[in-house]
TrEMBL record:
Its EC number is 2.1.1.-. It holds the Pfam family Methyltransf_3. SUPFAM superfamilies: S-adenosyl-L-methionine-dependent methyltransferases. This is O-methyltransferase MdmC. GO terms for molecular function: O-methyltransferase activity; S-adenosylmethionine-dependent methyltransferase activity. One of its GO terms (biological process) is methylation. Transmembrane segments: none annotated. Keywords: Methyltransferase, S-adenosyl-L-methionine, Transferase.
Length: 223
């Protein structure tokens, strides 16, 4: 517990210095909690990292797999240029309702679209309607389907697109080859696919902080 307290204090220090006060995002987190959504949003400094990565990329067409209450959606959408668009996929109707309200509050409803339903079906629908190519893809949904999400990301991305996948360390459990947790096995299969995929240059980073011990994958699709 001592380590966790230290990690949270360090996050608080950096956030207080490097993230200006943001009443909109504070209200969004309060709305998520009030609606009973699980508190599994990215941490504020991780949200800003997503924002900075998308901004550095110059992303104009972002795909997010897993909306929850729209907290990470708002961070990513804020990085878009005036004519940019973000599509987010969410399975739970309750989450969609909360996220739509949050996006309206943030003034981003005109730049964002949330598609409700199983993500694998929504991804196929996106391909059918010609919504691709996406230049930034954030994967943060049900981990057993991460291998399938990667395959779709490769289909729907443009050359040079950035892929970020969250929660890939799972408190260190990712190293357990014999894990009975299908989330861990989904991450391991996802990593194996990345390792064998010549079109993607990727790395993974471990993180500690207010959300505990975890990490993310960062990759770039080659031309």
């Amino acid at each position: 517990m001592g380590e966790m307290n230290t990690w949270s204090e360090v996050d608080g220090y950096f956030n207080s210095r490097l993230l200006p006060a943001d009443p909109v995002l504070d209200t969004v987190l309060d709305a998520n909690a009030g609606a009973g959504l699980p508190a599994i949003d990215v941490a504020p400094n991780q949200g800003k990292l997503l924002y900075l990565l998308a901004k550095m990329k110059g992303a104009a067409n972002i795909l997010e797999i897993g909306t929850l209450g729209g907290y990470s959606t708002i961070w990513l959408a804020r990085a878009l240029p005036e004519a940019g668009r973000l599509v987010s996929l969410e399975y739970e109707h309750k989450h969609v309702v909360v996220a739509l309200d949050n996006l309206r509050l943030a003034g981003l409803a005109d730049k964002t679209e949330i598609i409700e339903g199983p993500a694998l079906e929504s991804l196929a629908a996106l391909e059918a309607r010609g919504a691709a190519p996406f230049d930034f893809i954030f994967i943060d949904a049900d981990k057993p389907n991460n291998p399938h999400y990667l395959k779709w990301a490769l289909k729907l991305a443009c050359p040079g697109a950035v892929i970020v996948a969250d929660n890939v360390v799972r408190g260190g459990e990712v190293v357990q080859a014999d894990s009975k947790d299908d989330r861990v096995q989904g991450i391991r299969q996802f990593i194996d696919l990345l390792a064998a995929e010549p079109r993607v240059e990727a790395t993974a980073l471990q993180t500690v902080g207010s959300k505990g011990y975890d990490g993310f994958v960062l990759g770039v699709i080659s031309g």
